[in-house]
Amino acid sequence: MKYYVYNPKSNNGIKVKAQGAKLIDATKLNYPEFFSDLAPEDEVVLIGGDGTINYLINHIDLTKLKNKIWFRGNGTGNDFLHDIDQPADGEVLLNPYLTGLPTVTVKGKSYKFINNMALGIDGYCCEVADKIRAKQPNKKINYAGIAVKGLLWGFSPCKAIVEVDGKKYKFDHVWMAPTMKGRFYGGGMKAAPDQDRSSDHLTVVVSCCKSRLKLLKVFPSFFEGKHVSRTDIVSIFTGNKVHVRFSRPCASMIDGETVLNVTEYWAEL
Questions:
Q1: What fold is seen in the domain 104-268?
Q2: Which of 195, 209, 221, 261 is an S-S bond match for 227, by CB 3.0 to 4.6 Å?
Q3: Which parts of the chain have pLDDT scores under 70?
Q4: Architecture label for domain 2-99
Q5: Sheet of strand 68-73, all strands in order from the earlier edge strand to the far edge
């Protein structure tokens, strides 16, 4: 049997037509029970965005996974598919990407992530988007527009201490400090163009700038990965153990899922 598990909150639902398939609402599914009851030959097609994958990897024991899981993009965030150079309308075998995932600890809880952990204006954008959805569930979210408003007045940069594999670095006027497993995040921003998700390290991208207008001018280059040449604004680190601490609480996001009032996080591969 082939089961189609979809997230109805991604792109206002989906329509699947497949002979011999069973369509299941992910929001009504007990993941551990569902996967434990599957026969070894059963297959699952997971349909949604990056958050849909994140929910899966944090709600089942991946070491006991016995079934093939396919992924079809249908959400507003498909950075995972961008990273592996796959179209959103096809089915990709997810299993090879579910091993060796990094973990992040934030506010006393640990999570796996498939793309990134971020703290700063990127988390702020997700926080604002959540508030918009709460008031207007069917409204299309313009993350770039939210980011521009945040750069102009909505978000205030912080001081930060970034520790990578035991080496500490201090920064002022920090706007964001994501730790990347893949290259993309934030709905298509190529934050870490040299990161390889199959490698044995993570990439930390620290963006610092005192001038809002200067950073606003550089902002479009983040989508093409050209921001890395701006060493006056961007610092890149690679390693296995990362600790980021901000001088004040900010919103954060894990694969696009918001965690509020965060001052620090630990990421490890």
A1: Tumour Suppressor Smad4 (2.60.200)
A2: 221
A3: 10-21, 75-77
A4: 3-Layer(aba) Sandwich (3.40)
A5: 21-25, 2-6, 43-48, 68-73, 92-93
